[in-house]
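Consortium newsletter contribution from the modelling node. Members have asked for a concrete example of what our holo predictions look like. Here is one, prepared for the inosinic acid complex that several groups have been discussing at recent meetings.
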Amino acid sequence: MPAYAVLGAHWGDEGKGKVIDYLAENASVVARYSGGNNAGHTVMNEHGTFSFHLVPSGVCWPHTQNVIGNGVVVDPEVLLEEIKMVRDAGLPGNVSVSDRAHVIMPYHIVLDGLEEERRGSDAIGTTKRGVGPAYVDKVGRQGIRIGELLNPEDLALRLPEIIKFKNETITKLYGGDPIDGDEIFEKTRRWAAELKPYIARSEDLVAAALDAGENVILEGAQGALLDLDHGTYPYVTSSNPTVGGMLTGLGIGPRAFAGVTGVFKAYCTRVGSGPFPTQLDEEEADIIRNAGPVGEFGATTGRARRIGWFDAVAGKYSVRVNGMDSMVITRLDVLDGWDTIKICTGYEINGKQTDRFPIDSQMLGESKPIYEEIPGWDGSTAGITKPEQLPEGAKRYINRLEELLGIKAVMISTGPRRAESLKLDDLLK
Ligand code: IMP
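And here is the predicted structure:
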């Protein structure tokens, strides 16, 4: 029963979409388990260039079922738009969404904006897609689930109370404009009619593939250090991108796992607020930000990403809390041309050195990185596909990351297109 976890190892944007599109050639199911349309997974292949926010990245293959699991929060407008985009582009994969995925309602988007405004200088820098408020309602037991859209009579009993409460919060607490309940009702009717063909018991789809011994890819969104429990709280997203989120977010058991792969960028990036010990000053950051064929700007919000050297302290922590047994290194080509490359191997906190990742965000913010410097490499790694094409310096860099993290690299991504991939070992066995 081979389920392969492929998840972001640092703060997201590691290039999971590209990696999963590549791997999905050998998988019958690709399943998302957490987050919402705060994610932006970029895929470039013979069909075109796509930025998927909800639809899993296996959709470019005809044999794949692309499952949006119960752990995901779904903005129906975005999902419908994305399904249309998939169909218009002639992409062959099937898409389905769990009947128990929670809905991002229009008031969640309004509240995401108002809450961020209220935080002022302490803002988290959310994507303002309503993701956090939708999870708050899920936990608070006043969420709406996708399956409920198909039952308008029951929804008509619940929704007015919820909207009344949301409008009181919006107007009385935040001084915002109330939302129109009738408009929301109308929307839920349209969503139900248009989404009906895609709504499924997603755990059954995943279980059927696992029982048949077919490969299932569990597609991470965001990154381990944005995890609500294991990340840099409170500067996190409101779900569990780490491996545990796969069990609850899809309804699978731990015996299904055949491997857990962390996707690491060859350096680090972060968008939004929160501590980032290896962050570079803007001059150096700009060099990296603009070096590759696709710059370091958010696929969802267009924000410039903060850039830093590879943080192996955070990386080791991520390996441990996810039980990673292999890694993929992406955007290696972006580091072409540096004389010296730095890797953070420890932190100095209040005059003391440590190689343990401090979970407390304030302490992490006070951590000064301790760097190991290694020589860069001559020549370009852009687009290379064979291990023998790797410059010696690039091999040394990869080997050093493997040593520090204690796991092997199975694939190196050397460009944004599917074909720009260098396989070192089989990830799906
Ligand atoms: P939210 O998920 O929109 O609530 O945002 C919470 C934090 O997670 C913010 O710092 C966002 O920038 C960050 N975040 C959310 N989704 C992603 C992503 O897909 N990549 C990188 N950062 C993300």
